[in-house]
Amino acid sequence: MEKDIKLMKGNDAIAEAAIRAGADAYFGYPITPQSEVIEYLMAEQPEKRTGMVVLQAESEVAAINMIYGAAGAGKRVLTTSSSPGISLMQEGISYIAGAQLPCVLVNVVRGGPGLGTIQPSQADYFQSVKGGGHGDYKLIVLAPASVQESVDFIKLAFDIAFKYRNPVMLLTDGVLGQMMEKVEFFEQQERKKEDEPWATVGKAGRGHRNYITSLFIKPEKMYEVNLELQKKYREVEKNEVRYQEIDTEDADYLFVAYGTTARICQKACQLAREKGIKVGLLRPISLYPYPYDAINKLADKVKGVMVIEMNHGQMVEDVKLAVNGKLEVGFMGRSGGIIPTPSEILEALENKFINK
Amino acid sequence: MTEEIIIAGFGGQGVLSMGGILAYAGVMQGKEVTWMPSYGPEMRGGTSNVTVILSDEMISSPILNEYDTAIILNQPSLDKFEKMIKKGGTLIYDGNGINRHPEREDINIYRADAAKAAASDLKNPKVANMIVLGALLKQNPIILDENIKKGLEKALPERHHRLIPLNLKAVEKGKEIVKIIREV
Amino acid sequence: MLMEALEDLNLGDETIGVAPVGCSVFAYHYMDIDMQQAAHGRAPAVATGIKRVMPDKTVFTYQGDGDLAAIGTAETIHACNRGENITFIFINNGIYGMTGGQMAPTTLENMKSSTSPYGRDLKSMGHPLKMTELVANLNGVAYATRQAVHTPALVRKCKKAIVKAFKLQKENKGTTFVEIVTNCNSGWKMRPVQANEWLQKNMIPYYPLGDIKK
Q1: Which residues contact C26 (CB under 8 A, 6 or more apart)?
Q2: CATH of domain A5-191+213-239
Q3: Chain A within 8 Å of B27 (Cβ-Cβ)?
Q4: Shortest CA gap B157–chain A (Å)
């Protein structure tokens, strides 16, 4: 069979991947730099291709609650937004996590705080990974580093979301959303045919009613539900850690970076090796669950770890937890939509560990 | 082999679309491709640039400090990117509106007065970008002509396909008029 | 009564109800159908999500005045404006009943509540909101009516209105909106009989009963 290869913008590719993953519905509200997702869907009319529903909501608040409703019906649903819009969705995300509903969320991150800038950023790491809404819950967070991964992870995210009945977020940024790359698409997946046993689809033929809620007024019951969630998160931590190591076998120094920044670090590794400095890269792919063990092991082999982010130091806290005091962890970050360049990154590593 | 290219000019000079055609042509040639535009307010009116990376391997950073090749269509872009070309790299520029010409002695410099040729010879100023692309391909045939045609077919919407012959003519024009300023 | 209407139409097995925060959180215990609990004010968006992926099912929201007419006004207006094929059951008792009797958007002029202890002052607290009249203006709304349940005759009428709303939903006519003016004995700090009298004398003149759009 001929390969289905296209040159596509990250945002367009995410929209196409959603259709191909057999999604039942998209609810969203436009915001730069990701409005192409809903624009692509509206132009493509997936209702005619697969029966997938697309609706422009009146706000991000409404969009995430439409997701809640349709996810509660056991359907494959997703929304996409960018940082300020994701902030507005936090209440709904907490409810979705509390009611244990599967869904896919995409945050094409832009610089903040506040209205900020429309340029790329990684300043929503804490919000995504540590729980941006209220209560003791976890999002499963995947960080693609290419248009190809943005496509592949949409399908993966739906699988994981349904496996654990938990929201899964793709954390990308303006670079990944706006750039075009060569992508190979997976085959069109069928939309779901069977109802989930827990879904609210009308109680016909079931004999008992289903009830989607995150409200448990009795403390004992709420405690029990929280323990159940924690048990689930331990399973996720056991099964769903993903990361990539590049040139770490002989590395004296290690970069840790995700998404766009990991790509830039890869170039910085090449530049370093041209200068005779052996640098490797560990790229966390899942940001929750985090690859603590992999980083901890590498900390035994290298002389220094340098974390690079498009923010002022968020993931570096997890790297420090992973390294657990074995050696010094350096950090370099840019924010406000300024993207660090390969030579800047290399210079930061050299200043921290080599020229000191 | 990896070719890291920056294309820069004013918004409206067809910078992004030239990059798009080159990127599509790269896909047709079986290469890994990244097309990374500057985006945001600068898209409207101001300067516009796009990084195109063509490679036989997986592409790392879409953000670069230096480029193998720069295709420059206005003075601000020349001022910004001339110094960011790798030693031994290539600069191709349209002389239209340029007061301060490139000065570096450690890179290859070519000039193609595309805006002028597009208006006078091809009677369509919009294809100036394709003339410059032709100039690049003459000096560095990274992409085969047949793939440029296929790239155009992919990049242009169906309703514009009647313009493909004109675009190909523009590419040929660029190959004709390109002048060597300096080779190292 | 809501459940009776669904039973009469034989819809109970294919209905999904959405009830948010407010007195309506207790709705679950009285309704033996599939239900979702929504965040405060978001029931119309949740119901939209459910209905869009299952257009053949019957979907309703059961919302109080604080929920539908204050925090969730945007979701209410836009669901109605899109003409979502859902039914709103809007319980208007003029007060935030569940959380201890605070002022609602529907609280009447001079009416006392825990956050308007000297009575609602129109100048500083705004006017009681007539939601049903508001949504009746929207093209997406097929049926908007105001009902009450403080006499047996009114109960029968109200049930008829609910049946009509669900029938219209089945016929894909657009949004149907049934307001029910009711009392909140504890919130109003009155005995039931006294509360019914007060409702008839004060609430009904401001919130007149009957169909506003049919």
Answers
A1: none
A2: 3.40.50.970
A3: yes
A4: 14
